[in-house]
Amino acid sequence: MPEASGSVSRALRAAPPDQLAETADAVLRQTLGAARTEVFVADYRSSGLWPVREPDRPDGVRLRSDGVAQRCFSSQQPVLDVVDEGRCRAYLPLSVWGERLGVLMVELPAAPDAPTVEAARDAAGEMAMAMRAADRETDRYRRARRRERLSMAAEMQWDLLPGRSVRHGDVLLAGQLEPAYTVGGDHFDWSVDGDRLTVTVLNGTGSGLAASLLTAMTVNAMRNARRSGGSLVEQAELASDTIFYQHRGGRHVATLLLELDDRRGVVRAVDAGSPHLLRLRGGRVTRVTLEQQLPLGMFAETRYDVQEFPLEPGDRLFVVSDGVYAAEPGEQEPYGLRAMARSMRSTRLQPATEAVGTVMRELHAYHADADLRDDAVVVCLDWQASGRSGDDTGQ
What we know:
The chain is α+β, with helices and mostly antiparallel strands. The protein is built from eleven helices and 17 strands. The strands form three sheets. A six-stranded antiparallel beta sheet has the order 3-2-1-6-5-4, sandwiched between helices.
C-alpha cells in the first residue's frame, strides 16, 4: 500500500504545523481503514508516552517494562496488539535520523498483513519528519512532552540541544540531561558531516539562568568555529577566548570535545578539564585517559592540543559530567567509583538510546530517589564498524 505513505506525506506537507496528528488520522482512516489513531510523544525524562491530542489526560501511556508502547519505543520496531473482537492496534516508532520522538498507534479492524504494516510504518516515518520540522513553528508537541513546568534555565538548555539521539552510519549516539525540568549548565552538542561526527559535552559551572547563559555562549562559540570549518582545537580556542574576554577569568567551562572518524574508527579529543570519558568493551568498563588541559575561559589566549585513540568494532563510549561521576549522596562513596561501572556494564545488550536512561535511573536510585544535588549529563556512543577490516581502524 505505497499510496498510504504517499498520501500521508502530501497531506502533512499541506497541513498547519499544529494539526499534524489530526491530518494523519484523517488520511490513515481513509487509506488503511483505521478505526482511530493516536500520536504519543516521549516526555523530557523518557519516562512516559503522552497523547498529543490530550496531553493532560492523566492515564497517559506509562513506559512500563511490559507495555506494548514501551516495546515499540525501545525496540524501534512495529508491535501488534490484538484487542477485543479481533481488532488490532499497530504501534509504530516515530523516529527520524535515529532520534526517538514517540509512537504512532493505528487501530485496525483486523490483524494487518505485511504490506499494511509496512505502509503504516512508512506513514509513521513521514509523521516523525513532519513533527521534527514543525517543532520550530508550534509549541504543541513540546507542551505534550512536559509533565511539569520547566525552569527558565532548563527551557534554554533543551532548546539548545541538537536532539536526544542520532544515527549516522555505524554510529548510534544518545544523550540525557537531569534534572530534566531544572537543569542549568551541563549540556551536550553534536554534528554529523560525512564520515566525521563531532561531539561536545560541557560540565557547566554555577546554577540557574547564569549557568545556562554561560553554556549557551560556549556552545554557540564552538558551533561558530565548527561551521566555519574550524578544527577541534580552533573550536576550543574560540570558545575559550570568548568566555575569557566576557568574564576575564571569573567564569570557565570544563568541556570535552570529540571527533570520530567513522571510516577509520579513530577519535580525536581535546580534554579541557573533564567531563569523564569511559569505554565499555567486552563487558569491561575502563577510563579513557587523556591529557587534561585547562577549562575553557580560565586564561587569555589559552592554546589546546589534540589527542587520538582508536576504537574497536562494538566499542561503547560513555561521557559523564561531574554531576554523575562525583555524586556523593548521603555520605556514600562517589557514584563513579564502582556503582556507575556496574550500571554501564548492565547496558551492554541495550542500544545507546536505552543505555543513557539506564545509567540515569541507577544514579537516581543511588540517590535513593532524592533530588540530584548537581546537574548531570550522560552521553553514550556506539561504534559498530560494519563491513570494515581491522586495518581500517587505525590500530
